[in-house]
Amino acid sequence: MTFSPKNESAFNDTKMHSGKITPCSGMCSLCSAECAGTCEVGLSAVLGTAMVYPTNTGDNQIASEKDNPLNYSIFNINGRCFGAEGVAEDIDQAAIFNVKLERVIGGNHPVKLNVPLTLPALIKLNWRDYFSAAAMIGTVCVIGEGSSGKDPDTRYENGKIVRFELLNEILDSFHRYDRGYGQIVVQCNVEDDARGLPEYAIAQCGAKAIEFKFGQSAKGTQPVVRLRSLAEAKVKKAGGALVHPDPDDSAVAEAASKGRAPVFWTYGRLPMWTEASLTKRIRELRELGMQNVYFKMAGFDCRDIERVLRIASSAEVDMVTFDGAGGGSGYSPNKMMNEFGLPAVCIESAVVPICRQLEAEKRNVPFITIAGGFSSEDQVFKALAIGAPYVKAVGLGRAAMAAAMVGDQIGKLLADGIVPKHLEKFGSCKEELFVELGELRGIYGDVADDIPLGAVGAYSYLRKIAFGLQHFAALNRKFDADLIASNDVIPLTEDARRLLHGTWFPV
User: I need a labelling partner for 404 at 20 to 30 A (CA). Which of 13, 122, 242, 354 fits?
Assistant: First the structure.
């Protein structure tokens, strides 16, 4: 048995030529000398090192294809038929619509969430509608790392950002629909921080929150990007990037002119934070005007998970997001997306006892969000239950972006007078098709008519998740999301039982 995918992938449009596969290698059991190499091994024979990364980037989302044996499907949701918690035991009050989903992040500068959901870091595809939907639903959203690279007019002086006009537009995509819930956050990796993005975002654009990135599920390292020429390599190095091999080395330059140089790559530096340096950096940005600080962490070694939580506790970090294996949306190495890190359910099993220990030590426990491959309300409920009482929200990245792209695409088709065949039975115009438009008009008035349908699509999807979550909570007679607990899920396997009780691996 193998849980890893075969030697083919949607990452690069590769396919096996045989239906018979050797499980341990993922290769065809019969490898023919006449094959032109349609599998990953075959394409690697042509592209070499470039095959470490997907070839299908652009207007696509990319995530793991591995069928992890440990996931939320090994749990079922419990149910109860007596009593009510969070409301009076009254048949008119104990209703699905009365399940409270609100949360509050932080202490010194509280951020109210209308739903226990967040929209994790992203700055590609239909990001405008993605961020707008976050404001509309009332939650936190995060501008992904390397955002300054999205603006061709970004300017630097002495390696620091002095002009990044697009950032104001990005922030405004949230602010124009802000209704008092949630927040838009600027994520910074080590390169962003070195270029002064936090200072620029706070001082020049009025950003209130910064997220420091330690890593994410699919990207344990920072990206390595192939450069097409010596000239491009020189430009990247001049801009402060690490480039390999060194384009300013005369021997390398001469070899490149003769077509004898290796491929040029630019490499994003790895963070080398310590407790002291990170705490000092947070203090500096707070003095500059930053109100909220967030951490983004992957499913790394459990000792690293504990260390990050302890730093977050000491520095009074408002929220820590743990991104589990299986998620992702961006440009990450193929095999890292499939084979790196802890699945989200395993991260929760590790995080809960660490948080319990922090509480026993009378230390502050930050608001914790779990992300990594979530797309439905049953998964969200299970995650909140397994991580209770410390995991207080679930990040929906790829799914929310997919909804934003679908809404936008349907809007374009409707503008051309086309109703998708599968939607004809629901209506023939946006007022008939988009069920949540009436609610948005109630919130925003006539302005709602100008909301892009991509944003309506993402908002509608998030409303579906929230409504479904209310159903599961009511099923367990819990009428406040804060009351969701580990006894609201049922472990179906021995692994599930051990995960639920924090004994799956020593912490």
Answer: 13
